[in-house]
Give the backbone structure.
Amino acid sequence: MPTSPDLYDLLGVERGADAATTKRAYRDLARQYHPDVTGGDPEKTERFKAISAAYEVLTDPARREQYDRYGTVGDEGAGFNGFGAEGFGDLGSILSSFFGFGGAGAAEPPGGPRAGQPLGVRVELTLEEVATGVDREIRFTRNGTCATCFGTGVGEGGQRVTCTTCAGRGVTTQTRRTIFGLASVQETCPSCRGEGETIDRPCTTCRGAGQTPETVTHTLEIAPGMLDGQTLRVAGAGHRGHRGGPNGDLHVQVRIKPHRVFQREGRDLACSHDISFAQAALGDEITVPGILEPQTMIVEPGTQSGKVVRLNGAGLPDPRQPERRGDQYVQLRVVTPTRLSAEEQELLHRFAELRGEHPSKPQERSFLDKIKDHFRS
């Protein structure tokens, strides 16, 4: 039969330790072994369960007397050797019992757990990242649990006391004259901000708020095909909750950076590409930019400037079905040469004559005529 652990040894206090000494010992041990600190290490979690069970017994006068006399408390359904430690809350909730709003088995305080506020951030993606999806590491600042008071807002030697303004109700009642006569209006108490309690000695680090700014790094998995302005929700990554309340959510707005080549329309991409007069007239196989790799396309003979060619499946993926992709549209622009050699001019004139065209050759103008044209413009 295993030897029962000694409760006083678990807390590291003498048998005659008073309540304040026992609380201090438990607080120090909670800072070392609570799962919020250890990351859920199984061995340390079990140690903390034993510490919590010991604390529950030694802070209850009747149970402590029974333990001192018989070496057990004999609770029904208890944990190891007669006392249990199930259901411990988060670290801030546990440590709050040191500061005047409840110990083991106490009722929920007037200013109980509150959910954290949502937080919004923005992330920018390139169009290439939209095409492939990306794991993006983001850093942001949120309201975190104060490391000094562990979220209680109470300073050393302080405690929470019932608000004298609202008598612990969290609201005040004001009588106001309206067009219908006198009316009673309830408002959030300005002294305790609806919590029903105030702190006589606030924590000097967080000034009683229970929270301080913390910088967080989070890896965001962004699927392919995101739209500009689309918002992703990361549950529980927003501002920390108060007194054990759940964290708020993180809302990440995705913005797409402008691209030097492509315009986007949903899942489709559009770009323009220059071709020569000869390519437009005779046709050609050319390579044009693609979002991830160059694309090959055919220029049909006789292509006119401004013609749009569709490249099937060369666009962006559908975020709901990434295997389905949009198309890429290429507008072809025929570039007219601006400087021709004498031989090129002669060949073009010959080409025009073969087609029955007779463009006139521009006369050579004097330098003085060119100066006059410049000032007229």
User: Anything to note?
Assistant: The chain has ten helices and 15 strands. Confidence is low (pLDDT under 50) at residues 75-87, 96-109. The two ends are 109 Å apart (CA to CA). The CA atoms of residues 263 and 270 lie 5 Å apart.
